[in-house]
């Protein structure tokens, strides 16, 4: 292909947390080295592109959010193409390739990408390469990297086909012959989220990649080291020529100002809705001290706000980074004296970054400590592009080489083991590689936005007006070889520390500021759930299945149902089942008062199991909720098939929800006297009818 004129393709991305945008930027950066020009836009910028008249190939990178929804930046686009009035040949002229991002821990894997892909196909658009579906559960790069590698050949072949069509457009017969041959030259990419063996020879090294020759040094490891670690590699990686990503262009400029002024209000950091600052009025530890996990119940006073919710809804808590980690980061960066200084963040003049813009989550003017505390996710696992940038900030040759290995194609398994799976963050890297001294602008460019954390509501506003309950486990990250420091979850650790005086007022008698009589406040905003609600018809029966803190939304369900029963004695109420499981009956049975709902008739059936308790019974009781519901297979089938009831699951997906789904499929198969495939189809019908609902997490 002639390289004098770069061929254009349209590059669209739709992102929720920045990953799809980062991948699109990587494609944009690599395009030039392949003699191509990527016209990159966010999918929401619909005034800057027009698929109805687009003649060039289109590349789409799109993530998934919530329970399988397209990201917010794709909603207008999806709504437009979902118009039922569009004819089936509306996009017949369009050639496209799509890369979807998702997490297989969730039920609707890559559904944002699948939704767009399916609809474009329905409207006549044609693939010029196969759709890639990248799984964040095992590592996006396992699909993203080979998909991008194959994209360039697929694009060039699409351009050849396009040129052939154009040159023969004046001769109808010749054009017909050309079109009939088209399918045999379209380059298809067969990708899965499985690890693939990629043989990268010299021919695979493009100008967008740097060929790093072996640096013959001792990586500060003893001669006896035979196993790799975060800071040490072994042959063959330590002796390999590396293909490392192109260096991302810098685009942020940071200027220190004075110490005068006020930081912006936290509400200015949120675009999702109205933020409310509400007091925490109650904190209860639901588990015993010797329980494996510590579960807390917090009560918020929302009486003086217009905050509204339904049982089953979720809401978000704005949380700061750990204060000690912020102080340590300032120290490592040599900026301890600058924490209270206001900084101005601007786009660097003359930057080569495509579409460089001021990050929306960084205030125009705030103190450095405010940015590191409230704006940047300093616990984020560093992406390979960040590691590549850190290479340039590292003076020690051995440390530089190891960082290059970790961001290289050849070091993919080391990256997964020592960075991704070990939950290593920037601070961990700076401890492990002490000669690495990144600039502040680099952190702002590469660290993602500090996301508010989502929690399920565990109460009913009808049952206790002006109050909101929620339940959570304090997340623990034990130390590991790659990260020798243990730590707690960003939000759960902060909340636990915040409410400690309410839990143990006697332990804070010397601290009058945080004594039991004080009221701490947190900032929250609503995140309504459009599906995980009680049936509109109270006579419809329902089955609830939860393990551990997965019982949380069902407490709200039962409170709400109890209040409705009290207020509407003439109403008919359907049968209610609750299957609950935990480790130990005496340590983490979170809501033993469930029996109160059973006694007053709100709950028809309560079935519980305890996975770690030993039993002396001749027939061992079921350990897990999926085993428990199998004991009541006839009743479950009756509720779902004959009485058109609802089925709710809340809890851990991998270790609970998937097992429950398998059990339900077996129950349906037996009740319908059919094979498992037909039962799975029935489960899909229940999902589609929103009678089989999940609120799960990984």
From TrEMBL:
Cited SUPFAM superfamilies: Ferredoxin reductase-like, C-terminal NADP-linked domain, Flavoproteins, Riboflavin synthase domain-like
Compartmental location: Cytoplasm
Name this protein carries in UniProt: Methionine synthase reductase
GO molecular function: [methionine synthase] reductase (NADPH) activity; flavin adenine dinucleotide binding; FMN binding
Record bears the keyword NADP: yes
Record domain Flavodoxin-like: where: 9-152
EC number, as in UniProt: 1.16.1.8
Record-annotated FAD-binding FR-type domain positions: 273-535
Subunit (UniProt): Forms a multiprotein complex with MMACHC, MMADHC and MTR.
Cofactor: FAD; FMN
Protein's UniProt keywords contain Phosphoprotein: yes
Transmembrane segments: none
Catalytic reaction annotation: 2 cob(II)alamin + A + 2 H2O + 2 H(+) = 2 aquacob(III)alamin + AH2
One GO CC term on file: cytosol
Leading EC class: oxidoreductase
BP term (GO), one: homocysteine metabolic process
Annotated keywords: Amino-acid biosynthesis, Cytoplasm, FAD, Flavoprotein, FMN, Methionine biosynthesis, NADP, Oxidoreductase, Phosphoprotein, S-adenosyl-L-methionine
Matching InterPro entries: CysJ-like_FAD-binding, FAD-bd_FR_type, Flavdoxin-like, Flavodoxin/NO_synth, Flavoprot_Pyr_Nucl_cyt_Rdtase, Flavoprotein-like_sf, FNR_nucleotide-bd, NADPH_Cyt_P450_Rdtase_alpha
């Amino acid at each position: 292909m002639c390289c004098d004129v770069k061929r254009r393709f349209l590059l669209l991305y739709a992102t929720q947390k920045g990953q799809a945008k980062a991948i699109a930027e990587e494609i944009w950066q690599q395009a030039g080295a392949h003699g191509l020009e990527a016209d990159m836009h966010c999918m929401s910028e619909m005034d800057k592109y027009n698929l109805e008249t687009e003649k060039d190939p289109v590349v789409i990178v799109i993530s998934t959010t919530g329970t399988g929804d397209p990201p917010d930046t794709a909603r207008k686009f999806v709504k437009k193409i979902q118009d039922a009035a569009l004819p089936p040949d509306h996009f017949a002229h369009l050639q496209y390739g799509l890369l979807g991002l998702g997490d297989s821990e969730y039920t609707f894997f890559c559904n944002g990408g699948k939704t767009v892909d399916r609809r474009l196909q329905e409207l006549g658009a044609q693939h010029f390469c196969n759709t890639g579906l990248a799984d964040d559960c095992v590592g996006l790069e396992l699909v993203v990297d080979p998909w991008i590698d194959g994209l360039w050949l697929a694009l060039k072949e699409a351009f050849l086909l396009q040129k052939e069509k154009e040159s023969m457009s004046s001769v109808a017969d010749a054009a017909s012959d050309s079109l009939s041959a088209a399918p045999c030259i379209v380059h298809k990419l067969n990708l899965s989220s499985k690890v693939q063996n990629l043989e990268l020879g010299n021919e695979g090294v493009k100008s967008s990649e740097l060929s790093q020759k072996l640096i013959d040094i001792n990586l500060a490891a003893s001669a006896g080291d035979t196993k790799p670690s975060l800071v040490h590699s072994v042959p063959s990686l330590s002796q390999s020529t590396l293909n490392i990503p192109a260096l991302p262009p810098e685009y942020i400029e940071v200027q220190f100002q004075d110490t005068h002024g006020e930081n912006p209000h936290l509400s200015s950091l949120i675009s999702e809705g109205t933020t409310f600052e509400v007091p925490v009025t109650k904190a209860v530890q639901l588990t015993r001290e010797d329980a494996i996990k510590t579960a807390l119940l917090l009560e918020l006073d929302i009486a003086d706000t217009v905050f509204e919710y339904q049982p089953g809804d979720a809401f978000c808590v704005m949380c700061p980074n750990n204060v000690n980690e912020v102080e340590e980061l300032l120290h490592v960066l040599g900026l301890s004296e600058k924490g209270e200084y206001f900084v101005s963040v601007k786009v660097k003049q003359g930057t080569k970054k495509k579409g460089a813009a001021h990050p929306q989550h960084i205030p125009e003017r705030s103190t450095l400590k405010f940015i590191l505390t409230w704006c940047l996710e300093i616990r984020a696992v560093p992406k390979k592009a960040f590691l590549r940038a850190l290479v340039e900030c590292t003076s020690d040759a051995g440390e530089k080489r190891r960082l290059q290995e970790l961001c290289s194609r050849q070091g993919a398994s080391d990256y997964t083991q020592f960075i991704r799976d070990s939950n290593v963050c920037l601070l961990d890297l700076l401890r492990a590689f002490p000669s690495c001294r990144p600039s502040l602008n680099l952190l702002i460019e590469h660290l993602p936005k500090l996301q508010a954390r989502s929690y399920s509501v565990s109460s009913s506003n009808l049952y206790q007006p002006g109050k909101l309950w929620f339940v959570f486990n304090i997340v623990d990250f034990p130390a590991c070889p790659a990260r020798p420091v243990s730590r707690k979850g960003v939000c759960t650790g902060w909340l636990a520390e915040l409410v400690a005086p309410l839990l143990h007022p006697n332990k804070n008698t010397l601290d009058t500021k945080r004594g039991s009589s004080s009221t701490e406040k947190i900032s929250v905003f609503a995140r309504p759930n459009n599906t995980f609600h009680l049936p509109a018809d109270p006579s419809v029966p329902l089955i609830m299945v939860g393990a551990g803190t997965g019982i949380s939304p069902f407490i709200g369900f039962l409170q709400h149902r109890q209040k409705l029963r009290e207020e509407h004695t003439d109403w008919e109420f359907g049968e209610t089942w609750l299957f609950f499981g935990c480790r130990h009956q005496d340590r983490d049975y979170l809501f033993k008062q469930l029996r109160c709902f059973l006694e007053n008739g709100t709950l028809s059936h309560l079935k519980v199991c305890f996975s770690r308790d030993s039993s002396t019974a001749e027939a061992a009781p079921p350990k897990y909720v999926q085993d428990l519901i199998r004991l009541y297979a006839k009743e479950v089938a009756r509720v779902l098939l004959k009485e058109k009831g609802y089925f709710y699951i809340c809890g851990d997906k991998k270790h609970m929800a998937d097992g429950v789904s398998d059990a339900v499929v077996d129950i349906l198969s037996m009740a319908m006297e059919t094979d498992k495939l037909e039962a799975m189809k029935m489960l899909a019908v229940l999902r589609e009818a929103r009678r089989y609902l999940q609120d799960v997490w990984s």
